[in-house]
């Protein structure tokens, strides 16, 4: 996967994460939205870069033969990396005083946005 493709997908993930957080989670704190967007941008780039550097992109990129949701291990890795990165960034950043359940919900919504973009758009 080329760097411009990775960046475009990650950028779309960031926009989707912000939209999902605003529309579904009703998040209004700019610091939380910026942190989630940054994680949704950075974490897919890191995961896909690891796959490229190790030459494992071909091993992880076989889509499930289920047309409505053709997910692959590469897509799943994007979601897991995004979930972990967002949760850590929120816990040490703008949500350090929030309830763990709230942080987990915000991180999960961000990861879901990254997964959906990864599965369907690149």
Automatic annotation (TrEMBL):
<feature type="transmembrane region" description="Helical">
    <location>
        <begin position="6"/>
        <end position="24"/>
    </location>
</feature>
<feature type="transmembrane region" description="Helical">
    <location>
        <begin position="71"/>
        <end position="91"/>
    </location>
</feature>
<protein>
    <submittedName>
        <fullName>Uncharacterized protein</fullName>
    </submittedName>
</protein>
<feature type="transmembrane region" description="Helical">
    <location>
        <begin position="31"/>
        <end position="51"/>
    </location>
</feature>
<keyword id="KW-1133">Transmembrane helix</keyword>
<feature type="transmembrane region" description="Helical">
    <location>
        <begin position="103"/>
        <end position="121"/>
    </location>
</feature>
<keyword id="KW-0812">Transmembrane</keyword>
<keyword id="KW-0472">Membrane</keyword>
